[in-house]
């Protein structure tokens, strides 16, 4: 067996009950075989085994009281995966599906994504099996305060800087930051990102992941001499990433035909009214089927993955992991899709990804194409440290530069190591080398 094969088998055996984590590790490590051949020093240092083991895993109980006076107990987590390039950086996810496997996969992916940005940040992830949906503001506040009461001792502006993710928006970040400030007795604005702009948040952070996805997509289309304007698209999800993917796609002349939530999708042949969708999801916090109330020409279809049967040029999976499985990929190919551009974390299964690339579909890997959010989180950290702020236009210019750099670096690495224009392999190689070389230089073994 080669070193790569031995390492993967060892990691699978040690984490056999964590399928999402194993999937993420295999997807990255299979890409770096030619790198290991040129760098025998990595095998001597057991770099793969070390890179796949979190530096620290924190699990804790979160007791809180609901509006009925009942005591509820949830489980909280923080995975401080790799801090070799800077403070641990990665979001909190509040969702009933949260478990150790999902957070380890997210922390692993986050480490590689953060390295791609070129910013001095490590990788981490955290969250709880708490569902903020249907909870009052007071209940969410009490949960966040209890969560932070345990976690505050493990984070800090130069230690670990969390942000938001699924179920954690500006409201939750505000409650978490308020409790951290009270417990620390200090105003350390850089301890959390995704804050409201009124107390230290960065303009453009909310839009950054979706906008960055489109900047990366346009760079790929330009490289392949394909005009982006005039194309049709579907977007899974209707959260922050999906909404601002739709905004920027529309600015680039792309017609959005369908968007979804966890129950189903809406299809509008006239093109999704993006402003109305933002009002529905961000202001009214409604379900996506309510879009039909003011858009009678649209139709609603139940079913999580049925959206992939809608004929389009570009598919933007912006909901959650493993959103596109092999069956979904086959539907997309049958309908002539040109590109699948990933906005969520690991939204395409390995089998689906392989099938799409074999069929000539352009594919942007999530760790590269959705890196815009964390890139601007790093900008927010810089602003907080310097006690300065930037305009939206300044932040957006930085974002576009970072995304274009990530595309260029990924493409060049793919070509250098014999993968052609395989952006998945290229992104994995760039981030792996940055992390591995940092570990070697610091004697991190």
Automatic annotation (TrEMBL):
Domain of life where this protein originates: Bacteria
GO biological process, one term: glutamate biosynthetic process
Binding, NAD(+): 209, 240
SMART domains per UniProt: ELFV_dehydrog (SM00839)
Claim: Nucleotide-binding is one of the keywords in the record: yes
Subunit text: Homohexamer.
NCBIfam families: PRK09414.1
GO molecular function ontology, one term from the record: nucleotide binding
Pfam families reported in the protein's UniProt record: ELFV_dehydrog, ELFV_dehydrog_N
Residues noted as binding substrate in the record, renumbered to the chain: 89, 110, 113, 164, 377
Listed Gene3D superfamilies: Glutamate Dehydrogenase, chain A, domain 3 (1.10.285.10), Leucine Dehydrogenase, chain A, domain 1 (3.40.50.10860), NAD(P)-binding Rossmann-like Domain (3.40.50.720)
Family per record: Belongs to the Glu/Leu/Phe/Val dehydrogenases family.
Site keyed Important for catalysis: positions: 165
Domain Glutamate/phenylalanine/leucine/valine/L-tryptophan dehydrogenase C-terminal: 202-443
Nucleotide-binding recorded as keyword: yes
Keywords: NAD, Nucleotide-binding, Oxidoreductase
Assigned GO CC terms: cytosol
Active-site residue list: 125
Protein name in the entry: Glutamate dehydrogenase
């Amino acid at each position: 067996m080669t070193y790569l094969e031995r390492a993967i088998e060892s990691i699978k055996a040690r984490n056999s009950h964590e399928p999402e984590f194993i999937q993420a590790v295999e997807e990255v490590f299979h890409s770096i075989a030619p790198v290991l051949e040129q760098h025998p020093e990595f095998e001597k240092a057991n770099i793969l085994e070390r890179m796949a083991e979190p530096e620290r895993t924190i699990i804790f109980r979160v007791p809180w009281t609901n509006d009925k006076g009942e005591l509820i107990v949830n489980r909280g987590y923080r995975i401080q995966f790799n801090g070799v390039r800077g403070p641990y950086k990665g979001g909190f996810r509040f969702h009933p599906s949260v478990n150790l496997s999902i957070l380890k996969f997210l922390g692993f992916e986050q480490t590689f994504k953060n390295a791609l940005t070129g910013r001095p940040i490590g990788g981490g992830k955290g969250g709880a099996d708490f569902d903020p949906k249907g909870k009052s503001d007071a209940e969410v506040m009490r949960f966040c305060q209890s969560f932070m009461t345990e976690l505050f001792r493990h984070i800090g502006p130069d230690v670990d800087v969390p942000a938001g993710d699924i179920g954690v928006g500006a409201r939750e970040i505000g409650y978490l930051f308020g409790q951290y400030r009270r417990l620390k007795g200090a105003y350390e604005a850089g301890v959390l990102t995704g804050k409201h702009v009124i107390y230290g948040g960065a303009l453009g952070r909310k839009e950054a992941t979706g906008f960055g996805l489109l900047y990366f997509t346009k760079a790929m289309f330009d490289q392949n001499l394909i005009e982006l304007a005039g194309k049709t698209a579907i977007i899974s999800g209707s959260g922050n990433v999906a909404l601002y993917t739709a905004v920027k796609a529309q600015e680039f002349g792309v017609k959005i035909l369908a968007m979804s939530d966890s129950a189903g999708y809406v299809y509008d042949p006239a093109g999704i009214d993006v402003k109305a969708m933002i009002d529905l999801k961000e202001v009214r916090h409604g379900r996506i089927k309510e879009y039909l109330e003011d858009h009678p020409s649209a139709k609603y279809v139940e079913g999580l993955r049925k959206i992939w049967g809608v004929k389009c040029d570009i598919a933007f999976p912006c909901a959650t992991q493993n959103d596109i499985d092999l069956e979904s990929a086959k539907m997309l190919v049958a309908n002539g899709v040109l590109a699948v551009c990933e906005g969520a974390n690991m939204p395409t299964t390995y089998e689906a990804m392989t099938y799409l690339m074999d069929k000539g579909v352009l594919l942007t890997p999530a760790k590269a194409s959705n890196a815009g959010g964390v890139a601007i989180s790093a900008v927010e950290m810089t602003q907080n440290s310097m006690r300065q702020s930037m305009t939206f236009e300044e932040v957006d210019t930085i974002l576009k530069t970072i995304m274009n750099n990530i595309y260029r670096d990924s493409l060049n690495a793919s070509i250098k190591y014999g993968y052609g224009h395989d952006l998945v392999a290229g992104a994995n190689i760039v981030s792996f080398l940055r992390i591995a070389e940092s570990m070697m230089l610091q004697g991190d073994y």
